[in-house]
């Protein structure tokens, strides 16, 4: 049976700086208790940073306990490999023991060796471990990473393909699964973005080809163009496979996040489509779009220049 | 070479009651002149109706001439088979001669016989003829229609599959193409809706399997959840197939319609997902959603009742 992980609070935090109102989170957790979702990823754990970042960027003990109290689901936090060394693991994760079921690692495939070491420490503390490995469309450019893939099942439970640019098509998903399967039999996951509105079909294709866990977020809330929408995945699986869905519970939490969406405006648009289709990083695009200072026109011009590798004019 | 038909003004009219400002239309036509779009469907031709309906519902002569003046593209109007008899054709289409290149017929497959007669009259006036045949997901339920399909190439140039509920998947598109191919070799078209965000992948699948003309609208503007977005199709074909796209021209017209979208709110959401996934008509859903009187929750409840064929509670 396919497992669904909802990471609305973690991935949606890119828009709210990881602050969410108590009411919104409470409705979200209640709704999730009624829905066929297996894991909730609630945020990052991080060492203190200079800039202000909200609760769900750090997930302090009191927050972990509140969520645990309110939720029947398996809980997940994620570590960003580039900010965390193995020596930090004990401090960061001790408060999670007994509360958090899975710890995921977001990683650049070029740092795969470092991530393996990190995972070893995490696994030793008794957590399930997931690898969220970025840039799946470029993995063939990293032979050392592909070579080392065979070590991953010793330290991890799930190995995710992340469509970081939001530019992969169903055929690419199938080819990437085959590429991994040459190296390891670890359980696979898929995290899709929605720049080209391919989140659903890529995810369903992944499931059809043996992926065992998939990510989604309510209203697609997430960095840049956002993610596969949880409500779309559940509605499709309800109609296609008879998955039981409490649509009242689902629409309550969708309503809450839809209101936030009116202010923050996540979702795809022409700049995100162009960045996705051409595998350009969406971090810049998100800054340009959300500032509302540049016209789409000038963003498109800048992206075209990136694409053709010429200087902005 | 695949042909693209943009029907923003025709299909978008469901939201604006077929009124559009002169500025918006002028930017749209100018942009389209710069883009690799072959046909523009600008509206309906209709006999006078009792209720108020805007210019693009009737496309009077002065409007046809203005658009012809401003546009380099092949122009299209559509007739709704249920409102038009063969005896009306001369009156409705005489003003179109020399201006309009293609006349499409929107039809229920159960009225296919009537549509063939209508098409005969239209063809005799020298127009290209397109059949926009609704409810593709239910065609197997209409054996008389399937049997009569073999007559269509005598009176029409294009035969469109319309995903009226927005619920078909790529595999369904392939199967429907095969179903038609048993009966006729007419050139095929595809008109996708976006309830499940499958507009792009269904359209690309259709093209891959020999469909020769596809519909799209700027920002997806169109009845209910709306259509495949023209900007998404062009961006994908630019990145995948090297189709030349003037992104400045594209983003100018996208900007204009995006502003309208803020007021009218077309695009998919949970109620449209549920209606699409379960092949429920989106006309009711659109009324409920746009009135903003009912909560999504109560709409979902009503849809669930329709799905289970019980009375509203």
From TrEMBL, chains A, B:
GO molecular function, one term: 2-isopropylmalate synthase activity
Residue intervals of the Pyruvate carboxyltransferase domain: 2-251
Highest taxon above the source species: Bacteria
UniProtKB keywords: Manganese
BP-aspect Gene Ontology terms: L-leucine biosynthetic process
Official protein name in the record: 4-hydroxy 2-oxovalerate aldolase
Organism the protein comes from: Pontibacter lucknowensis
